[in-house]
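Listing S7. Sequence submitted for prediction.
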Amino acid sequence: MTVAMILSAKGKKVTSVKLGDTLTKAVSELATRKIGAVVVCDGNQSVLGILSERDIVRAIATQGASALESAVEESAVEKHMTAKVITCGETATVDECMSAMTNGRFRHMPVVENEKLVGIISIGDIVKAKIATAVEEAEAMRNYITAG
């Protein structure tokens, strides 16, 4: 199964913020949409970073509640987002993405084609795809055994 198959089922809508947006805006998007991360993009939909709930918690832990009024990225010294984002393309397999997420210890992976954001997958999407494949294989095996 590929990322394109996952996106065709779940859709390609991605919630994003831009540099200069406050953490309060990002938190509002996360809460309203009940998601765990937003992608930070420029005006051309190029991925500049990703901002997760964990990043926001770290900012509040180090700066207190005032961190919520700071920008997603204020300076080279004070970054709230994760700037080194591992992405995938639509042709990537579920196994490749699962391996990257597990090894990198992250839960959200932007999908990029021609250097533009086209979707996002989560570890939940990966698990759902793996379970669906296992169920299909088990059903095929049952049908094979009962037909023979």
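Caption to Listing S7: primary sequence and predicted structure tokens for the chain studied. The chain has five helices and five strands. The CA atoms of residues 89 and 113 lie 6 Å apart.
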